[in-house]
Amino acid sequence: RKEVEQDPGPFNVPEGATVAFNCTYSNSASQSFFWYRQDCRKEPKLLMSVYSSGNEDGRFTAQLNRASQYISLLIRDSKLSDSATYLCVVGSSGTYKYIFGTGTRLKVLA
Amino acid sequence: EAQVTQNPRYLITVTGKKLTVTCSQNMNHEYMSWYRQDPGLGLRQIYYSMNVEVTDKGDVPEGYKVSRKEKRNFPLILESPSPNQTSLYFCASMSGHLNEKLFFGSGTQLSVL
Question: What angle do CA B109, B112, B113 make, to 5 degrees?
Answer without folding.
Answer: 135
